[in-house]
Structure formats: C-alpha cells, structure tokens
Amino acid sequence: xxxxxxxxxxxxxxxxxxxxxxxxxxxxxxxxxxxxxxxxxxxxxxxxxxxxxxxxxxxxxxxxxxxxxxxxxxxxxxxxxxxxxxxxxxxxxxxxxxxxxxxxxxxxxxxxxxxxxxxxxxxxxxxxxxxxxxxxxxxxxxxxxxxxxxxxxxxxxxxxxxxxxxxxxxxxxxxxxxxxxxxxxxxxxxxxxxxxxxxxxxxxxxxxxxxxxxxxxxxxxxxxxxxxxxxxxxxxxxxxxxxxxxxxxxxxxxxxxxxxxxxxxxxxxxxxxxxxxxxxxxxxxxxxxxxxxxxxxxxxxxxxxxxxxx
Length: 310
Hints:
By secondary structure, this protein is of the alpha/beta class. The protein is 51% helix and 13% strand. It is built from twelve helices and ten strands. The strands form two sheets. An eight-stranded mixed beta sheet has the order 5-4-6-3-7-8-9-10, sandwiched between helices. Strands 1-2 form a two-stranded antiparallel sheet. Strand 7 (225-231), helix 10 (237-248) and strand 8 form a beta-alpha-beta unit. Helix 3 (36-48) packs antiparallel against helix 4 and helix 4 (53-67) crosses helix 5 (74-89). The mean pLDDT is 89.
C-alpha cells in the first residue's frame, strides 16, 4: 500500500476523532483573535478529545508564546496544532526493529483481552514474511480457545508455524517449546501471545513472570521486546493499562489498535506525553496491511484534519 493510501486510511480511521476536534476548532476560530477566552476554549476542546491535560497545557503555552493576540483562522490553528502534536509524537515514533544479534528476536506481546493482541501478532507475522524474514508464533493465551484458533488461522494465512498446546496448557512451557522451535528453524523472530485477564492481576503477573523466567533458561537476554497492545476505543483507560503492565513486565513499546472505529485517537498523544514509550505501530483495520509503522506527522495531521501530509 502506498504511503498516501495509508494516510487516507489513517484519516478515515481517525474520522470520528477528527470530526470532534476539527468541528470544535472551526466553532472556536472563525477569523478570531487568539485571546485568553479562545485559548481556554481550545484547551477544553483538546482535553475532551483525549489528548490529556498535560498535552493541552503544553500546546496552549506554545500558542500563547507564538500567536497570542493575533487574528487566526481555523485552518491556521489546525496547521499549528498538527505541528505541536507532531513535536510531541516524533520522539516516540520508532519502528519495531529486530536486533540481528538475537536470532530469534523474541517479542512477548501483552495486553488485556480484546485489545487485538492476537490479530496484531498475525499482522506482524505477515509483515515480516513480506520482508523476507522467517517468523514463528506461539499461542500462549491458552485460556481462550478462540485466541489459539485465531492465531492458527493467521498461521495458515501467512505460512507461519504456530506452536500451540491443548486447553489450559502451561503458557510458560509452551513459550519454551516455541523458542526451541524458532531456534531450530533459524527463525528471525518469535512472536508470543499471552493471556490478558486483568481481573486477577496477581495471577497474570505470576504467569508473565514465569514465561520470562522460563524463556531465560534458553536465552538469558529474552524477551528482547515486550509489546503492549492497546485499544484506542478505551480512551483514558489506556493510560491505566500502561501503568498496570509496566508494573508487571518491562514494557518496551506500544501498538495502538482499532483507530478505525474510535473517536479517541487523541489518546495516542496522551500516551506519548505521559510515558515516552516508543509507539511502534498503529492499526486502522483488520487486514495485515492496516497495521503500519507509526508516523508522527501523518498521525498528527490526520488527527486534526489537515488536508495534506507535511
């Protein structure tokens, strides 16, 4: 898919967020002087769009420095807002790169049930295959038969081996077997699915710790990436999920999914400001090509409804 095509999909996916933010900006700024009242209205709009209070304050402070007292149009505000948001997002926009020093590069995928972990793993396997890399997937969410079946379907679709066990199989033992298989296959990457039952945080923490402990019996540096998958539709709840999973495991990066059905795309900006964790990719649909590396400029312009890619 051409970059422009993905930008179109991204804008389409962010349409609800864009509509909320864009119509609000137009309502506030129609050839209006940027005074205290206008800035206050803009700050409230940014917070309501899930960008968070810290981001809103930072943007308003920048506007106050550079544009206070000037007459501005809604398009000028959108352009300026896209620049400010892109500046916040640029430091965290980092693709998920495999470390050639570790083969296989072990990616432990975590997140609460329903965020799209299993689908994300399948899409990553497809992307790696398209890039000429060999992947192995591990169906480590052994408590959900549907998750195992879903990963096996992705395995068939992408011609990627899937290591799976029976119902309620030991996820740590399965991860160990998957690493053995990936090593024997000279795979470039091992993608491990995990359970996400936050209602019993202690049990989940123990399970994830055991998986990591068992992996390190084979490779003391594993996992090399701990990927937290977040559902954009949960809005501010995604902040809490990051906090909880950072307590449980050393999360190294984020993937944000379901931006195709969300009015809450601004949460990505709040996540970047709050945690500074790399945002490796965003998902704007169900197809493999709908998971793409995160681009700060594209996302910022898509979010505020700017017409072209900078």
